[in-house]
Structure formats: C-alpha cells, structure tokens
Amino acid sequence: ALGISTACADSDRPIDVAQLPQKAQQFIQKHFAGEKVALAKVERDFLEVRYEVIFTDGAKAEFYKDGEWKEVDCRYSSVPAAVVPAQIAQYVSGHYPDASIVQIDRDKHDYEVKLSNGLELTFDLKFNLIDIDD
C-alpha cells in the first residue's frame, strides 16, 4: 500500500522543457518554433509516464515516455500540417473542405481527429475511416 500511495503522490510534476525526452524537444522545435511554453510537466500513472506541454496560446502536446507524440490539441488554430498523416489530411480536405483539424490523438489502435466543425473522425492504423462522432 505504501508503494501505491507514493506513486499517486508523484503523479504530476512541473519540469523544464530541457527535461523532456529528446524526440519531444525536437517535435516542439519543429512544429511549435514560435510558441512560448507556459508549462511542461511529467505525468506518472502506475505503469505509464507521459509528458505534457502547454503553450501560452492554449495549444498543448502530449508525449509518451520515449518522446513520441500522443496528442496535439490546438484548440484555437489548426494542428501543424506536418503532424497529420498525409492520408488523414487528404480525407479531411476531400470530405470536409471548410473544416480544419484542431486536435489529433494517436495510440496503438487508432488515430482520432477533431475538426473545427465539431466532428470527430476515427481512423485505424492503415488510415481507413472507422467511426464518425458529432
């Protein structure tokens, strides 16, 4: 029980951007070069370590422990085009030309994309559309 309470007590902790994994630092430099970081933090669950970076414009990026991106949420603007897989970008521009991608989330099963028109699209890892939520 002591080990579990220790793990819970250490769940979120602010860190310096320089303490992020190298891949995460490179991702931020490439895709958010002009943005100021408001907060960087490490989040620990029982078996997982993740990093979250929140920018002053409200955008945020979440990373796995190896520095690979998990989620990019730009709220008030579009997700940087280079982050979105080409097949997903083509589908969205072809089917929803007036919408932009404001959030993308990936895991080992699928990609979830939120559009500026409120729709949420889910793609499998081969970029086939498998679900639409409004």
Topology overview:
Elements: H1 2-9, E1 12-15, H2 22-31, E2 37-44, E3 49-55, E4 60-64, E5 69-73, H3 86-95, E6 101-106, E7 110-115, E8 120-124, E9 129-133
Antiparallel strand pairs: 1-2, 2-3, 3-4, 4-5, 5-6, 6-7, 7-8, 8-9
Quick summary:
With 134 residues, the chain is of the alpha+beta class. It has helices spanning 2-9, 22-31, 86-95; strands spanning 12-15, 37-44, 49-55, 60-64, 69-73, 101-106, 110-115, 120-124, 129-133.
Shape: globular
Report, as a whole number of angstroms, the end-to-end distance.
42 Å
Helix content: 10-25%
Order of helices and strands: HEHEEEEHEEEE
Mean pLDDT over the full residue set: 92
Quaternary state of the chains: single chain
Could you tell me the strand content as a percent range?
35-45%
Largest sheet: 9 strands, antiparallel
Count of individual beta strands: 9
Q: Enumerate how many helices there are, as a single number.
A: 3
Quickly give the structural class: alpha+beta
Enumerate the strands of the largest sheet in spatial order, edge to edge or round the barrel. Answer: 1-2-3-4-5-6-7-8-9
Low-confidence stretches: 1-9
Task: Tell me the radius of gyration.
Answer: 16 Å
